[in-house]
Specification:
2 domains, 13 helices, 304 residues, Rossmann fold, alpha/beta, five-stranded parallel beta sheet
Length: 304
């Protein structure tokens, strides 16, 4: 006979004393109660910044060694990882294989819940085996409750392989934290609707995943000042954004920025270095390659 899960002991499953009469509130009252709870999220994230830094350092080390950043989870947690991962290629021109989101049940589970699969530790391990996980990778397993078997199985397998492992949860002393090298336990308190962790817990986790991927991209030279200089120019909107970025950094006219971008094969960094150093596409690209993609270093290294 299996033991009871005792979910009521988890902060994420506790009842919120501030919202027990939400069913009686009018529309604005409902929204105010939810908003009051949401205002607690950023403060909770601030408390775990040192732990988030550790995750960033692990991912950065993985990138330096040719490894990957991999998010894994079930349900809402898995969807959050997938969403963060799929935004990295268009925003920073990284390979889709460099930041990967894996969710229990596969891609079809993103649109239609496949709740039962989260109870399988073996499925968590199998999904990492299927992408040939190595010791150069970083695995972040996401589970609001901190006890999802799928996430636990993923972490145990990743640890066995020798990858960096991080547990991202919303409860202190989470079960899966014991299966990871490092943990981020962001305690946002009980949800406005008891147990609905797609609310505060998910918002906190989305903020943290955004921070991790963004910080790593900054550290590997995908950002100059506060501009996404490695944006993938794949449509008209992104081309206009790229032109605007080039103008902002070089004071070039619109026509000059557009022409240079086209001469640079729509590679924003190259266009910026071309204008900053008055070089052609080939020389600018060489300068960037020698500077490992960092614009400021490429400009510093230029000697006319």
């Amino acid at each position: 006979m299996s033991e009871p899960l005792n979910l009521h002991r988890l902060t994420t499953e506790s009842r919120n004393s501030q919202t027990v009469e939400i069913h009686k509130a009018n529309t604005l009252g409902i929204l105010k109660m939810i908003n009051n709870e949401d205002m607690k999220i950023a403060a909770a994230v601030q408390e775990v910044l040192p732990d988030i830094k550790t995750a960033v350092d692990c991912a950065y080390e993985s990138f330096q060694n040719g490894g990957r950043l991999i998010y894994t989870g079930a349900g809402t947690s898995g969807r959050l990882g997938v969403m963060d991962a799929v935004e990295c290629p268009p925003t920073y021109s990284v390979s889709p294989d460099q930041v990967i989101g894996i969710m229990a049940g596969g891609p079809k589970a993103f649109l239609q819940a496949a709740e039962g699969i989260e109870d399988s530790e073996e499925a968590g391990a199998e999904d990492l085996r299927n992408i040939q996980l190595t010791s150069n990778d970083t695995v972040i397993a996401i589970a609001a409750s901190g006890r999802t078997p799928y996430a636990a199985g993923a972490l145990r397998y990743a640890r066995k392989v020798g990858a960096h492992t991080i547990a991202l949860t919303c409860n202190e002393n989470s079960a899966i934290s014991k299966d990871a090298d490092h943990s981020i336990e962001v305690v946002v308190g009980p949800e406005a609707i008891t147990g609905s962790t797609r609310m505060k817990a998910a918002t906190a986790h989305k903020m943290i995943l955004n921070m991790i991927s963004t910080a790593v991209m900054v550290k590997i030279g995908k950002v100059y000042e506060n501009l996404m200089v490695d944006v993938n120019v794949s449509n008209k909107k992104l081309k206009e954004r790229a032109i605007s970025i080039i103008q902002s950094l070089t004071n070039a006219s619109y026509d000059t920025a557009r022409y240079t971008l086209e001469q640079a094969d729509h590679h924003v960094k190259t266009a910026i270095v071309m204008l900053k150093t008055s070089t052609d596409q080939k020389q600018a690209k060489t300068l960037l390659d020698e500077a490992n993609g960092f614009i400021d270093k490429a400009i510093e290294h230029y000697h006319p």
